[in-house]
Amino acid sequence: MPLSDIKSTLQKHANKKKAALLQGFFKTGPGEYAEGDIFLGITVPVLRTLAKQHQNLTSRETLSLLQSSIHEERFLSLLIFMMKYRSTDTGGKKTIYETYLQNTRYINNWDLVDVSAKHIIGDFLKDKNRTPLYALAHSDSLWERRIAIISTFHFIENNDFEDTFKIAALLISDPHDLIHKAVGWMLREAGKRNMDSEEKFLKRYYKRMPRTMLRYAIERFPETKRQSYLQGNI
After folding, report:
1. Is the pTM for the entire model greater than 0.90?
2. Planar angle of CA 102, 118, 57, nearest 5 degrees
3. Rounded CA gap, 69 and 177, in Å?
């Protein structure tokens, strides 16, 4: 199916009321983190279905979708890239990984990062030098910093926490709430698998953490211990 037909299909699924809600939810107003982003109002299940139907889209056309001004087109592109990544050989995976890193300016909202980073960046780096994640963690781009920490989710799922904790430490003083939430979430995920490792990190850093980061990190702790962290009594 030509790319123009895919875009037409997306337009048929558009919902103006839902689009207005999403534009508020994803902070697209003046001065907000996704200022000017355009939503059609299409649900994620519909986008996942369309991705399966169009997973044989050429890489060039998939990249064209990623570079769209429309949020759902970018989301659909990332879903297709993930499917291509899973089904290709080592060389193909490297190409998709590099394409992703070359186009992070289009992976510019938290849902786009969260749906894709661990499956492409995390998976590709699982058995390689992870220096690229540290470059991302030092980036001026909010989204690249979020990619850095969320990519480590792949490692966490394989009980490898070292880079999660190192990158979390780099981002402890990050100014943005979306990084506080992402770091806290990854710390919590590490703790679900190894509470002692998470607590070792927290005991060193919890008094310096933004409150949101700490709350996310300790969300599943027993209430007494959770309150001890919140009150600074650990």
Report:
1. yes
2. 60
3. 24
Q: What is the pLDDT of residues 84-107, one digit of tens each?
A: 999 999 999 999 999 999 999 999
Q: Which burial class, exposed, middle or buried, applies to 160 when counting CB atoms under 10 A from its CB (0-12, 13-18, 19+)?
A: middle
Phi-psi region of 232 (alpha: psi -120 to 50; beta: other; left: phi over 0): left
The encoded tokens of residue 167 equal 């990158």
What is the C-alpha to C-alpha distance for residues 35 and 28, in angstroms, rounded to an integer?
4
Interval 141-180: pLDDT, tens: 999 999 999 999 999 999 999 999 999 999 999 999 999 9
How far, in Å, CA of 181 to CA of 129, rounded?
26
Q: How many CB atoms lie within 10 A of CB 221?
A: 19
CA pair distance 77, 27, nearest whole angstrom: 21
Task: Name the segment(s) of the chain with CATH classification 1.25.10.90.
Answer: 128-234
Map residue 70 onto helix, strand or coil. Answer: strand
Distance CA 146, CA 158 (A): 20
Spatial separation of the C-alpha atoms in residues 195 and 52, rounded to whole Å = 37
- Kindly report the backbone phi and psi dihedral angles of residue 209, in degrees, each rounded to the nearest multiple of 5, phi listed first: -70, 145
**Annotation: CATH topology of 128-234:** Leucine-rich Repeat Variant (1.25.10)
Phi-psi map region of 148: left, alpha, beta (phi>0 left; psi -120 to 50 alpha): alpha
The single-letter code of the amino acid at 21 is L
Residues ≥6 apart with Cβ < 8 Å to 56: none
DSSP 3-state percent helix, strand, coil across the chain (nearest 5): 70, 0, 30
Per the listing, tokens 């910093």 go with 145
